[in-house]
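Milestone M4 deliverable, item 7.
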Amino acid sequence: MIDLTPAPPTSVSAGGGLFTGFSRLCKGLATLLVLVYLVVLVFPPVINYIALVPGKTIPFAWNLLSAGYLEQSIFTLIVSVLGILFGGKVLEPIWGSREFFKFVVLVNFWTLVSTFLLSITLYFATREENYLYKPLSGFHGVLAGFLVSVKQLMPDQEVTVLKLRAKWVPSIFVLFTTLLGALAADAMSFLPFVIFGTYSSWLYLRFYQRHTDSNHKGDLSGEFSFATFFPEILRPIVNPICLICEKLFCGRVSNRESEGSGHVLGGVPLPGSDAFDASRRRERGARALEERGERVDFILLFLTPPLVSP
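Output delivered:
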């Protein structure tokens, strides 16, 4: 059984806690990934019932949930297991077990629904049956979402391996994956998962995540707007498009964000405002990681979704 009881923040000593302190929820999810992989390894035909096969999703609609927990190669399995363990070690103490589990389930589901719709669209556009009957699966949509979560909670944390701040990691990863997808023979096996996982996690964190320590939902701060995924030079072009899309799909465009008034006093967010809550969450995230004595750049190595097709 996966334990959903709230996980109190715990500290792991800097000396030898990097590979310890994983919660029961994270170990349960990692075990689930391993078990599903072994079932398909022993009984290969089962893949057509667990993976996302768009042409068979009706009536096998459960694959919109199950496909996210199936890895089709040992390499992607190892990366996903390490990703869920280290991602949970960073995020679960900050969010709590229930919210962390909810994030994993929703991002997986939205990623698979979006991939399903894309596959159907590509089939009608090209009449290529491969888009309908190739089994698609993988946990890398959620791993991409973890990168977005790190961007939200600790954007200014320096990733020394990459020589950049954590807030740029999701953008660079999506760009790199897109370029790789343009060269790969089978981009459908990973590219939609990464792109839709990134966007759906941002959508949830931006507008819908409920915070138990306040009465607010989401994070409408300017530091977490969709335009922040793009370089400064492109933001004047991206900003109007983002505002239209946010209002169209979510109906929650914040005038406070664009006006920059009503929530700050002398450049400091006022208590009780969305900006104040977002700033407090970022400080808490950075402090929680610092207390556990862990390196963001090391953890990000295990959060980065696999780029190798199964």
